[in-house]
Amino acid sequence: MNILLIGSGGREHALAWKIAQSPLLTKLFIAPGNGGTGKLGEHVVLDVEDHAAVVSFCQLMAIDLVIIGPEAPLVAGLADDLQKSGIKVFGPSAAAAQLEGSKQYTKALCDRKNIPTAAYGHFTNATDARAYIEAQGAPIVIKADGLAAGKGVTVAMNLEDSLTAIDECFDGAFGDAGAEVVVEEFLSGEEASMFFLCDGTTALPFGTAQDHKRVGDGDTGPNTGGMGAYSPAPVLTNALQDRVMQDIVMPTLKGMAEAGTPFSGVLYAGLMIDDDRPKLIEYNVRFGDPECQVLMMRLESDLVPILLASAEGDLSDQAAEWSNDFALTVVMATDGYPGPYEKGSVIKGLDGISDKMIQTFHAGTEVQNGATHAIGGRVLCVTSKGKTAGEAQRNAYATVNQIDWPDGFWRTDIGHRAVEREA
Ligand code: AMP
Ligand code: GLY
Question: Which of 267, 289, 293, 296 to mutate to test the pocket of ligand 2 (most atoms within 8 A of CB)?
Fold first, then answer.
């Protein structure tokens, strides 16, 4: 098979690494890829906003399957346009991608299907939103309705911060994404994620993970795209996973099909677990980054036939085998991230550090004249397996410490919850 993978993050490096191991693969193209993916496939320059150009490329190269990594092209309808041209694609339609593209869309679905989630209000002006917040009190959560590159959510511990967040949204801090706002009840508990591959009607559970969103040790400082992750998530017992499937995911697939917008692709359920009750925080319609890196390390099955079955609308014959090992990834980021940072610093010490138990997935890197340069905020994802969370953590940090990059930083406590549980 000829496969086109779209994206440039650590998630896409991990997907490319797994796809490249498939006996079904003839040729992998990656658009645009990053400094780590060049050995796994051929990089292509494609404007993914130009759907006609992507379709032409697929026809010219006889692409059998397109795998779309990030959410923006999905919300923009790239999967729809590929499908219209008869090209198989892993990922939801634009209509189904509204599960990530609009918070209000998902809240309305939860109402219709009685899915456990935070109580909320939906607002199109600041006056009504402020009145609701003053009636509810803090802590409270303010969310820009649309895609805001992970920055549209404020968990406000006091009234003043929540009102500031409302003003920011309606004053245009997130552009059109903030023209509508969802205000939510604050949920306490432990956060975890569960992934499902979907074909429109059924869901194949596809692993659990926990990530670390805050930039600093001890979960302090501003939110980021994710500074590390591990899989499995010990908090998600088999009984809880069954509840997530029955109470949250199956009603979602049913509701989407009833609306005439069946969901296919990967459904990422962000969950809050309190008192053995899972509640939906949010959906994403793509693999998590860096959660994908730990899932791919643990997946023993061939990824390609499973993604193809999702694209073809029938997952009924598919199963996924997982290693019993734990996997953990530490994100190395450029100094300054998630604020402004310099681009171009050189990273050394990357040779010979990947093996069966360790993979260093690249994110914001570029190779120039044989040297690896950092060109993004999140730059490397050092991913390790281990018999326990503690072993995976020790292995990952041993590798992090071999990498010579004075301009980078990382959290030193990735996996602390899982390691503490083991103790
Ligand atoms: P999101 O950008 O939607 O992933 O949200 C970012 C983070 O905000 C989530 O991972 C949670 O940690 C937090 N969050 C979102 N909604 C709530 C809520 N209702 N209660 C508590 N925390 C929340
Ligand atoms: N790591 C969080 C996300 O991918 O949304």
Answer: 289
